[in-house]
Design a protein that fits this description.
Structural Genomics Hypothetical 15.5 Kd Protein In mrcA-pckA Intergenic Region, Chain A, Tyrosyl-Transfer RNA Synthetase, 19 helices, globular
Amino acid sequence: MNVITDEHKIDRLLTRGVAAVYPTAEKLREQLMSGRRLRIYHGVDPTAPYLHIGHAVQFRKLREFQNLGHEVILLLGSFTAMIGDPTDKLATRKQLTKQEVLNNAATYKKQASKILKFSGDNAVKLMFNDKWLAKMTFANVVDLASHFTVQQMMERDMFAKREAEQKPIYLHEFFYPLMQGYDSVAMDVDVELGGNDQTFNMLAGRTLMREMKQKEKFVVATSLLTNSEGKKMSKSEGGIIGLTDAPEDMFGKIMAMDDSMIVPYFTLATDLEDEEIAAVESAIAGGMNPRDAKMRLAETVVETYHNKSKAKAAKKHFLQVFSNKEMPDVIPELQLSGRTLTIVEVLVEAGFAPSKGEAKRLIEQGGVKIGSGVVGDPMLQVSPRTDEVIVQKGKRFFVKLLP
């Protein structure tokens, strides 16, 4: 596979959405310009069955390396997910079973293939870290631990905060950066790519590579997609836009974002050129309605993960439902077949709520309508005899009840 040394593409790879490069961006640039084929990896712990646009920031950067001809590995944390990464967590993560992890990871390759190429020339390699971590002996773990001090571990913000608040810090949580660090050794990589919240763990790998392989590993830390409060988009923090979200849902979630998130999302979640993004930012500062910029962002993102026609349809749906206060053209149907259900049961059967308790909460919050009227009684009985009934949850979700 020929390695591409296009200066513009390399400069973009090292700057667009990149928070830091270790030891320096210039040294990595020298390696990329040399024409040597590098091995780059990014790891994801399957702690939930879906990937989201926050993950896609790293996937998109991996794709840049792939397009330049470098070897790319997507590593699934089939072992580390069972331990749980303590990064940014003020409480211990719930430990998962091996089966839970495998179930979560079942469709990761398919989801990631919306961005990464897993077939053809220079296909991304999919690997699992239980292949080596599950085989380690206690002696191996002790040897890994000997490369770090307790003081180094306690430098991590979340551990310091927990200690100050007298919250427990479990010994197994110290093992996580050791395991992630050893992933680099096991795969003998040149570069590790991850969000800047993973810098401590990635640098642990840099330490182990230097001491166990006598090799310098580069670390590329990307910026994170965050909400208006500065919290990252994550499975644990919420506010996610899933890679498998329906076009209408994806479009609606972006339109519901705070205006302050428009430019960062254009930068991290689209291929729009820097000059175009700067023009959008300047236009907003000059008085442009942020809603128009957000509309363009939403259509661009939906087109990326679906296609152009679905993006246009999602925009039309949004304008009908939100701007013009109209019903969408196509509404899912629920056949009652003569049954009489409570509105709570309808919400659960329609998939609008995962449980009756959650359905009741939606009703108590005024988030459910039948026709144009807000439902206040969770025991309200619904039984369309001759005409269809439209039930609405929130602003975007509708279901047509048929007799």
